[in-house]
Specification:
The chain is an alpha+beta fold and 368 residues long. The chain contains 15 helices and 14 strands. It is 39% helix and 15% strand.
């Protein structure tokens, strides 16, 4: 029987950090395949093409970019708009099931463009759009122009949003492949994967998967990750099956009883994370990985920076350009930390850019 929140044990920030890093495959690199890792992590945020590759390089032992590309070419994984109405790399199974579960986020986005869709029958738009992209993959521009012939008075951009929000559109290859280029061309997930969409999974099952990959976590944490609301009743239904903790601010955290929760003193090696990494976007309270004094330092406007973890927490930014990996720590690193960061940077470069020569340099400490 689970304890009440008032008497639930407290997980300190470092303990919470280590538990989350362990679930995210960032304490020690995992032997999982690229596809299995994408499944475990419930997808990788992928507004840009390269971040999912760097995300897996930080997490997997023996990873090579070609492995994720091969899975994408085999249609085992796809790029599709899902969580928070943003592009993610998902397994084929999750593309067909998880997307309908989080449809509410796209419904909210679509609601912001209603004015530009006056007189547009969304069911008919979806039917026409499906026919067009299943006839052959289309760019969004091509799809928008075709829809404008049906609704010439509608706002063109709003028509694009409506197609993206009402249809399960995947980006077909070569878009998304490592070292390849290609414009965004779209078709439906069902057409690309050769099988019909399946019913959305019960939210209960997805809560358990979320906790396995991101826990311990609060209801608000999962709502932030999914772009959903009203998940409290699902957690309450699952409460008898879960373990309950409190964080240092007394917020209630749920977890799977048998999930690993490493000791707070477990070593956490440096990791180079891409922009928009799952670790930094999947909790309402990000203090488990972002120190309070660094809040807001990993973003500028809508652009996320590539981040460096030292001792499990965000400790700096990094960039790769003109044969140089430049590390910009937020605070001075010890000699031992610099050596570990350099070694990890060299390993990352060997994995992601084999045969290319890069220098690892430490830049000026980043200022607010």
């Amino acid at each position: 029987m689970t304890k009440t929140t008032a008497t639930a044990p407290v997980l300190g920030t470092r303990a919470l950090n280590r538990a989350t890093l362990g679930r995210q495959l960032l304490l020690s690199r995992s032997p999982l395949s690229a596809t299995a890792a994408v499944e475990h992590l419930l997808g990788l945020q992928a507004q840009n093409v390269k971040p999912p590759y760097y995300a897996l390089a930080a997490r997997l032992d023996g990873f090579r970019p070609e492995l994720l590309s091969a899975a994408m070419e085999a249609r085992d994984v796809v790029r599709i708009v899902t969580l928070r109405s943003t592009i993610h790399t998902h397994t084929a199974e999750d593309a067909l099931t998880l997307r309908p579960l989080v449809q509410a986020a796209r419904d909210r986005e679509l609601g912001q463009f209603r004015k530009g869709l006056t007189g547009v029958d969304l069911d008919r738009l979806a039917a026409i759009g499906r026919e067009l992209v299943e006839e052959e993959p289309r760019t969004m521009k091509q799809l928008r122009e075709a829809l404008l012939t049906e609704w010439p008075d509608a706002d063109p951009f709003a028509l694009s949003v409506a197609a993206r929000c009402t249809l399960p559109l995947v980006q077909v290859t070569p878009r998304g492949l490592w070292g390849r280029s290609g414009q965004v061309a779209l078709t439906t997930a069902e057409h690309w994967l050769g099988r019909p969409a399946e019913p959305a999974p019960a939210p209960d099952a997805t809560v358990l998967r979320y906790l396995a990959a991101f826990g311990p976590a609060s209801v608000k944490d999962m709502q932030t990750w999914a772009g959903l609301t009203r998940l409290r009743e699902v957690f309450e239904r699952l409460r008898p099956r879960l373990t309950v903790f409190r964080d240092e601010n007394r917020a209630e955290l749920f977890d799977l009883p048998d999930a690993p929760r490493p000791d707070a003193d477990t070593p956490a090696p440096p990791r180079f994370l891409p922009e928009f990494d799952n670790l930094l976007l999947s909790h309402a309270d990000r203090s488990r990985v972002v120190p309070a004094d660094l809040k807001g330092r990993t973003w500028r406007g809508n652009q996320a920076y590539r981040t460096l973890l030292v001792d499990g927490f965000v400790a700096g930014l990094w960039k790769l350009e003109e044969g140089t990996l430049t590390v910009e720590p937020f605070a001075r690193l010890t000699r031992a930390q610099r050596d570990e960061v350099t070694a990890e940077g060299e390993r990352m470069l060997t994995v992601m850019h084999p045969g290319e020569a890069y220098d690892v340099r430490f830049g000026t400490v980043a200022q607010p």
